[in-house]
């Protein structure tokens, strides 16, 4: 997430590399646009408190912290069940689909 301030020196390399630090070419572009519009409406100082929820949504979309922690929790629970014998190894995952069933 960008600092949303102007660079000290503006060159053509600044403009070329600007797209690398945004989420405009990803699935998070709507979250980033909502956050930037909110900051534009309230200003940088007041926008930090008013747009906090939008910033958290953008951060979750970019870094996927909650999603990955959920995947790790499910994986750890599955391996715990395998070790304790609650789950048989052949029941760990669902059945394999038939060929050409997609």
UniProtKB/TrEMBL annotation:
InterPro entries: NADH_UbQ_OxRdtase_FeS-su5
Pfam families per UniProt: Ndufs5
Family: Belongs to the complex I NDUFS5 subunit family.
Protein name: NADH dehydrogenase iron-sulfur protein
Protein role: Accessory subunit of the mitochondrial membrane respiratory chain NADH dehydrogenase (Complex I), that is believed not to be involved in catalysis. Complex I functions in the transfer of electrons from NADH to the respiratory chain. The immediate electron acceptor for the enzyme is believed to be ubiquinone.
UniProt keyword list: Disulfide bond, Electron transport, Membrane, Mitochondrion, Mitochondrion inner membrane, Respiratory chain, Transport
GO cellular component terms, semicolon-separated: mitochondrial inner membrane; mitochondrial intermembrane space
The keyword Electron transport is annotated on this UniProt entry: yes
Tagged with keyword Mitochondrion: yes
Subcellular localization(s) per the UniProt record: Mitochondrion inner membrane; Mitochondrion intermembrane space
Annotated membrane topology: Peripheral membrane protein
């Amino acid at each position: 997430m960008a600092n949303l301030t102007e660079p000290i020196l503006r060159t053509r390399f600044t403009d070329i590399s600007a797209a690398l630090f945004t989420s405009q070419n990803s699935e998070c572009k709507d979250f980033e646009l909502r956050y930037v519009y909110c900051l534009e409406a309230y200003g940088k100082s007041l926008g930090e408190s008013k747009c906090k929820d939008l910033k958290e949504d953008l951060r979750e979309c970019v870094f996927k912290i909650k999603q990955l922690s959920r995947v790790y929790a499910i994986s750890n629970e599955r391996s715990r069940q395998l070790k304790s014998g609650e789950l048989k190894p052949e029941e760990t995952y669902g059945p394999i689909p038939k060929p050409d069933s997609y």
